[in-house]
Amino acid sequence: ATLTALACGRADPGDPAVRERCAREAAYLRRLVQQHAEEDAAPGTAAAVEQAVRSAECLGLRVTAQYRDLVEIPAPAAAALGSAVTEALNNVLRHAGTGHAYVTVTGTGGGVEVTVVDRGTGFDPRAVEKGLGLRSSIHGRMREAGGAAAVDSAPGEGTRVELRWPA
């Protein structure tokens, strides 16, 4: 209902109560999707990230991807990684002012580390309110799946998003 109200212009996206309802509804929808993803044949680690890469490339972003020593992780964790990579690449498209990103996926024993790097405009993370893109789509999804995310950026220095599972 909240998303419909936003789409129709009947709710203010800057209203803290609306933002909180959106976050709760998004968490509920992610749980539903994860339940169905577990029931279906969920993609593996590489496939989840590669799907995010292909989607970004279809939107015009050039992505250099490297995969090293991959290990398979539980389907909900792979789905969270894929979703977080999708959001990081979408942020490159929307904000970085560059047409190229670098994605590295590395197996770490029983886990996975993914980095998404751009050499774009960068930003001061302390000066930017954490929007839904960072808070929910990246940090929230990784946390809900038992992982972690970190964003490092500075004006003129580009941005580096690091994703880890397990945390």
From TrEMBL:
Residues 80-166 form the Histidine kinase/HSP90-like ATPase domain. InterPro entries: HATPase_C_sf, HATPase_dom, Sensor_HK_TwoCompSys. GO terms for biological process: phosphorelay signal transduction system. It comes from the Bacteria. Keywords: ATP-binding, Kinase, Nucleotide-binding, Transferase, Two-component regulatory system. Residues 147-167 are annotated as: Disordered. GO terms for molecular function: ATP binding; kinase activity. Gene3D superfamilies: Histidine kinase-like ATPase, C-terminal domain. This is ATP-binding protein. It comes from Actinospica acidiphila.
